[in-house]
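User: Structure please.
Assistant: Input sequence and predicted structure:
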Amino acid sequence: MSDETKRLVIDMVETMHEYTGVGLAAPQIHEPINLCVIEIDDSNGRYELDIAQPLLVIFNAKISVLDETPFGFWEGCLSVPGLRGYVERPRKIRVDYLDHTATARSLTAEDFLATVFQHELDHIRGQLYVDKVKDRTRFAFIEEFQRYHMDAPAPDGK
């Protein structure tokens, strides 16, 4: 990895941490390359989660859907601050990618982690989660989300 790319990855991780994100894609910071970083840990103040994902640096990722069953989650995005929207995505995926050493890797992700990968990789294709919110009544400012939606059942009753 070039020194320039190393610096970019470090900057992306610092930005993700500063804004309590769980992922960040290079196009979000105006870098037109197929790169994202993902990390989920206990220190994240944005989501209360029971899962952890050590830092991943992901180049040239490709997603294969393993289970198309919809999994819904209230997504937020560092590119669209202050909002949450309920989005359903495939529940289980495989991600094939190159890591920070250009080693080919593959992993399987389910539920929330699958959502994170799909969300971040959408940025590579120029898409945002707001484009995937089907029910506009399930799109809200953070304050409205916390007041009206946070403890409400998902549209499918789950």
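The first helix runs from residue 3 to 18.
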